[in-house]
Amino acid sequence: MTATLIWILVALVAVGLYLSWTAGRLDRLHARIDAARAALDAQLLRRASVAQELATSGVLDPAASIVLYEAAHAARQAEEDQREVAESELSQALRAVFAETPQVEAVREAPGGEEAAHELTEAVRRVPMARRFHNDAVGAARRLREHRKVRWFRLAGHAPFPMAFEMDDEPPTALVERAA
Amino acid sequence: MRIGIVCPYSWDVPGGVQFHIRDLAQYFIGLGHEVSVLAPADDDTPLPPYVVSAGRAVPVPYNGSVARLNFGFLSAARVRRWLHEGRFDVIHIHEPTSPSLGLLTCWAAQGPIVATFHTSNPRSRAMIAAYSILQAALEKISARIAVSEYARRTLVEHLGGDAVVIPNGVDVDFFADAEPRPEWQGGTIGFIGRIDEPRKGLPVLMRALPKILAERPGTRLLVAGRGDEKEAVESLPKELRPRVEFLGMISDEDKARLLRSVDLYVAPNTGGESFGIILVEAMSAGAPVLAADLDAFAQVLDQGKAGELFANEDADALAGAAVRLLADPDRRAELRERGSAHVRRFDWSTVGADILSVYETVTAGAAAVATDDRTSSLRARLGLTRD
User: Fold this and answer.
1) Is B344 near chain A, with CB under 8 Å?
2) How far apart are alpha carbons B268 and B276 in whole angstroms?
3) What is the pTM of this model?
4) Where is the Glycosyltransferase subfamily 4-like N-terminal domain (chain B) (predicted)?
5) I need a surface site. Which of B28, B86, B339, B344 has the fewest CB within 10 A?
């Protein structure tokens, strides 16, 4: 009788430890998502700032300046649920403005333009990178959260179900080609 | 930045991954970063100052061949000590799925971890059995790098998730500036790779050789690499055997000079390649490249724009293309030019900057949220375990 009790106790402890370990895994994944999201935010903000700076610098022609300024401003001001759309529109505006290599050359030739162009190139390359890392973390967390043990024992607690960040982040070819 | 790099394979044995890590470490040191490489090595091997030995690797049968791996209590302790003493901003693990240092580091570390997947092995039985253990360790990796689009696809299919593609790097100018050797010039075809490994495709080239020699009798084949030379030419008629010259194992300098000298570099590999660094080296040296149409090779050669492709394992197609190219100096010059322009994207200056961008992306995010989550979630976990 006592032996059975002890075995039941051992089994319960083992199950408890396993669940605790899983909860730890999940916690780590959530922390990774937060970090990846912070990195993505930083890169998006950086891209919008450089774009806005370029738009107000007077290097570009007035029409391109307005298009770029509008898009960059909208991306920075966007509410959370509008963010993906606004950032995609900024990608499109950047692609439209920097569609041709001469435009990039013109920016480089302006005073301080070399730095600005370099900053922008870095930013448009890192946004897709940061987004991929973020969505990779989200995918891993989702796979674990959909598992029975996590749902039945509510191991995820009150953490919201992680959402991927979907946007058009194709960089302007004239910018990345130079760097490649 | 303080960078820790983990090499899963023995530093004593030369190999693609080891060379990649060596060049990467030297590139970062050149930029003024602090780099420490943890690698398995024999105690008496002389190591460069930036390499820390994780002890001797043990030969174990694994995945169909004998692999030299590091595992067990002692290795794990060394990994912990290295992590503790290094206080790295970021660690970069190579080949994290091999049951060696990479996996051990994944277990022991937390914080920004970057991992590069070099091979695109089909999923092994051991990996399926250990899937949940592996998954728990791989979940800690904040950024994954695949060396080619092909390697990325395999990674996505087998492990889920996603990765950015950053190719392997080559010191393009080292090859471009090498001095050609006159005795290796004049109607020569080059091949570099293990002679006795059929995967590297020398048998295919040997089958094609009689046809090439029938059309262009002056052609010579220069073969550089380890293996049994007699066995390699066995399939060839006796009178043709002198047209094949074996150079044995050659130094990096000679490899560059060989690639600078030949009229055509042939890569008849039959499979199992995830990148094809040798093609990049050949293009850097300005050698026209003719390669099997493996996925990875087609990508390195820009779908045939920077070098020609032939149907894999088809000796007749290989012979036809080789004869055509050897007879057409204009086409070869065109390939040289395209290859040299295309190969710049594989130069360390580009590849290293991309890898550094990855480091900066993961460290930027991690610094922002390192501490505050842990205490609250620990309480939550304790609450749950008591239920």
Assistant:
1) yes
2) 11
3) 0.83
4) 14-173
5) B344
Read off φ and ψ for residue B124, nearest 5 degrees: -85, 165
Give pLDDT tens digits for B122-147.
Answer: 566 666 677 777 788 888 899 999 98
Question: Which pLDDT belongs to residue B347?
Answer: 92
> Looking at beta carbons, which residues of chain A come within 8 Å of B162?
132, 135-136, 139
Considering only CB atoms, which chain A residues are within 8 Å of B112?
35
Predicted local confidence at residue A74, as pLDDT: 93
Phi, psi of B222 (to 5 degrees): -105, 120
* CB proximity B152 to A under 8 Å: no
By Cβ distance, the residue of B160, B357, B365 closest to A36 is B365
Provide the sign of the torsion angle of the four alpha carbons A73, A77, A81, A87, taken in this order.
positive
Split at pLDDT 50, 70, 90, the class of B283 is very high
**Residue B283, C-beta contacts closer than 8 angstroms, at least 6 positions apart:** B289, B306, B307, B339, B340, B342, B343
Q: Distance (Å, rounded) from C-alpha B192 to C-alpha B252?
A: 12
Separation of alpha carbons B109 and B113, rounded Å: 8
Would you say the C-alpha torsion B359, B360, B361, B363 has a positive or negative sign?
positive
Examine residue A149 and state whether it is found in any structural domain, yes or no: yes
* Closest to B134 (Cα-Cα) out of B111, B104, B113: B104
The percentage of chain B sitting over the pLDDT mark of 90, rounded to a whole number, equals 42
DSSP secondary-structure letter at B347?
B
8 Å CB contact of A129 and B142: no
Question: Can you give the pLDDT at residue A14?
Answer: 93
CA atoms of B12 and B10, how far apart (whole Å): 5
**How far, CA to CA in Å, does B236 sit from each of A152, B151, B214, B239, B240?**
68, 36, 13, 8, 7
Please give the structure tokens belonging to residue A49. Answer: 């700032």
Which of A34, A133, A146, A153 to mutate to test binding with chain B, by most B CBs within 10 Å of its CB? A133
Q: Which amino acid is at B325?
A: L
Amino acid occupying residue B131: Y
Q: What is the pLDDT of residues B77-112, one digit of tens each?
A: 888 889 888 888 899 999 888 778 888 888 888 888
Number of Cβ within a 10 Å radius of residue B80: 15
Given a cut of 60, is residue B381 above it in pLDDT?
A: no
Burial A1-19 (b: 16+ CB within 10 A, else e): eeeeeeeeeeeeeeeeeeb
Q: ipTM, 2 decimals?
A: 0.84
- What's the whole-number mean pLDDT along residues B234-258? 89
What is the model's pLDDT at position B236? 86
Looking at the structure of chain B, the number of domains it has is 2
Q: What is the DSSP letter of B100?
A: T
Give yes or no for a contact between B150 and B165, defined as CB atoms under 8 angstroms apart.
no
A115 assigned to some structural domain: yes
Query: Do B246 and B149 belong to one domain?
Result: no
In a domain, A84, yes or no: yes
Assess if residue A76 is contained within a domain: yes
pLDDT at A7: 94
